[in-house]
From TrEMBL:
Domain of life, source organism: Bacteria
GO cellular component: a single term: cytosol
A Pfam family this chain is assigned to: Rrf2
InterPro entries to which the protein is assigned, alphabetical: Tscrpt_reg_Rrf2 (IPR000944), WH-like_DNA-bd_sf (IPR036388), WH_DNA-bd_sf (IPR036390)
Gene Ontology molecular function, alphabetical: DNA-binding transcription factor activity
This protein's name: Rrf2 family transcriptional regulator
Signal peptide: none
Organism lineage: Bacteria, Pseudomonadati, Pseudomonadota, Alphaproteobacteria, Hyphomicrobiales
Amino acid sequence: MKRNSRLSSTLHILVHMAEKPEHALTSEQLATFIHTNPVVVRRTIAGLRDAGIVTSSRGHGGGWLLGRAPENISLAEISTALGETLLPFSTAPESPGCLVEQAVIAVLDDFRVAAEKLLAEKLSRITLADLTADFRRRYDLIGVSSHAV
């Protein structure tokens, strides 16, 4: 099964932004944190801008900033803004006439709904500030600056 790293990459970017909330970071700078192309960064966080999680400005001194304080941004909001499904499977029909697919959906759909609800509840209680604090604690323990990450 292929792992979707979009949420983890986005969280990586947002933790760096939360570390320096007053400094706008360009797509180029953010791309270096996750070893990708700036276009990928812009596509990935466009939904975050639409949700008010980040803001952007163009021109000299422009870039991306958090749209609000990290303690007011939940992981559930981030996931929703990205349009991510966090479970490794979906029960959306792809071949409605397939009897095997119908059986799989019948057996797994209640489980999927319950798992998504539980996951959403948990993610709504974790904020970007929680992630940033843990990141800071870990790097303070080993004496590494966040700029080295």
